[in-house]
Amino acid sequence: MPKNLLLHPSTITLIVHLLILLLLGIRVIMKRPATGVALAWLLLIAAFPFGGALIYLLIGERRIGRTRTSGIQSLNNDYRRIADAAIQQGLTEVDWSRHPPAAEGMNRIGRSLAGSHTVHGSGFEMFSDTPAILQAIARDLDSAEKSVLMEFYIWNQGGLADDVLEAVIRAAQRGVQCCLLIDSLGARPWWKGAQPQRLREAGVELKSALPVGLFRTLIGRTDLRLHRKIVVIDGRVVWTGSMNLVDPRFFKQDSGVGEWVDAMVRLKGSVVVPLAATMIGDWMLESGEPLEQIIERAELRLVQPEGTADIQVIPSGPGQSGDGLLQMILSLINAAQHELVLTTPYLVPDDSLLRAIRGAASRGVSVRLIVPEKVDSFLTRFASRSYYDDLLDVGVEIYLFRRGLLHTKSIAVDGAMSMFGTVNLDMRSLWLNYEVALFVYEPEFANQLRCLQQTYIDDSDRLDAETWAHRSFSNRFLENALRLVSPLL
User: Fold this and answer.
1) One of 234, 262, 282, 350 is an active-site residue; which one?
2) pTM for this prediction
3) Is 351 a catalytic residue?
């Protein structure tokens, strides 16, 4: 090759691009991500020579930094100590004979992969009306005597969410220990407002979870988010579910999807221990405060059983539980013998999840999937639709919820077992977010959840397979194109 051609800018650019592709290709391969994820990244890096490489270096790996890695390892040791205390008190002595055979196997999976034991003796109350949820949380806060622990992905000013804020302030002013952990990116507009300062002035300990910034981008990914929603009051009452601290009448009104529709559950009894431990662990990672000190300040103690439900709490997130949550969901779906009902706002499953749902329908299980007709993400909206054909082909009934953005995340199986929590059926929730899910082995909970899911079905339109097959070529092409990058969404 002539020397002047070798030094030509286009030649140099090509050589640099090939080197980048080679080096990052080796890195992607050696990191051993899922095949679809690896191919998506390689395609992006090859198609966009320098931009794709930069995006991969920023968000292509689940980098959490050495400090957080060390903190999570320490946290896992603390979780084991809490689990040992629960075992000694007998909270994990579950009568598995009253549950389907798969339940005990799921308990083993959660115990070995996520370090979480099923605890017996919990009471529950399900809420699906947003005003009632916010009002009930405010009432519980007004009854707090010792401690309030809260963590949310989003806090949005306005409406009844402000009543919760005022209840927290009142609690702090009467001497209750109040610790609030709110995601830095999910609640970014709220952080810029006046409410955080009001909380601090009242004596509330308020911290930003997973702060973002240029320096943090260099040591770890900044799109790893705290997506959990937990409220613990006096170590005796706990709330969790899909709802952020928002009044939907004042939240994202310009997004064109209607009001968000959520569900929460109020719990008492043994399950308070693992849920409180999850929130305390997140607080430890952000504050550096030792576990014993937090427990002592909040005056938390192991609680007595109260209720009939056996519940397994599965927290998940980068560096925390590997694929434990995904394995639990797959086991729950595979356990279905008669009916499987799923609700999720965002449907971007990996191959294993898609196969599990298809497999359930193929073996004769009645499978119903309820998703919102409109979602607030353009990319996710079209990528999700690319999976409808795969599901319709094997007889899955797909219902498009028309009364807003259905945000409840749930799975009900055979009127006997359930999953309820913060996790969406998408790869971001399963691999990048810090989530928490309840696996509930209790027919009454499953029946209440199934009744709630039926109200969603009643407010939905069933997707007709024949009509769907005749949608425009442009829509089908866009859906399938975005499906190629769905592992990155």
Assistant:
1) 234
2) 0.89
3) no
CATH 3.30.870.10 fits 324-488, yes or no: yes
Q: Which residues of 165-191 are buried (b: 16+ CB within 10 A; e: fewer)?
A: bebbbebbeeebbbbbbbbbbbbeebb
Question: Rounded to whole angstroms, how far apart are CA atoms 434 and 425?
Answer: 14
The span from the CA of 62 to the CA of 96, in Å, is 36
Tell me the mean pLDDT in the region 2-29: 73
**Candidates 117, 120, 268, 409; catalytic one:** 409
Instruction: Assess whether pLDDT exceeds 60 at residue 311.
Output: yes
Q: Is 470 a catalytic residue?
A: no
8 A C-beta contact, residue 298 and residue 146: yes
Is 3.30.870.10 the CATH classification of the domain at 65-107+117-310?
yes
d(CA 46, CA 44): 5
Segment 51-61 shows an average pLDDT of: 74
Catalytic residue among 117, 229, 282, 426: 229
What pLDDT does 216 receive? 56
pLDDT confidence band for 489 (50 / 70 / 90): low
Model confidence at 368, pLDDT cuts 50, 70, 90, reads very high
Cβ-contact 347, 369 below 8 angstroms: yes
Q: Which residues pair with 410 in a beta bridge?
A: 343, 420
Q: Is 414 a catalytic residue?
A: yes
Scored b (16 or more CB within 10 A) or e, 78-116 reads bbeebbeebeebebbebeeeebbebbeebbebbbebbbb
Whether 228 shows a pLDDT value over 90: the answer reads: yes
The answer for residues whose C-beta is within 8 angstroms of residue 403's C-beta and 6 or more apart is 258, 261, 459
407 is catalytic: yes
Is 229 among the catalytic positions? yes
Instruction: Supply φ then ψ for residue 253, to 5 degrees.
Output: -70, -20
Indicate if 268 belongs to the active site: no
- Rounded Cα gap, residues 303 and 305, in angstroms: 7
Is the pLDDT at 182 greater than 70? The verdict is yes
Give the 3-state secondary structure of residue 24: helix
The token pair that represents 72 in the structure block: 């999570």
Both tokens assigned to 44: 């992006």
Catalytic residue among 99, 117, 268, 407: 407
Domain boundaries, the chain: 9-59, 65-107+117-310, 324-488
**Annotated catalytic residue: which of 227, 262, 268, 350?**
227
- Confidence category of residue 82, pLDDT binned at 50, 70, 90: low
The pair of structure tokens assigned to 194 is 């006046």
Same fold? 65-107+117-310, 324-488: yes
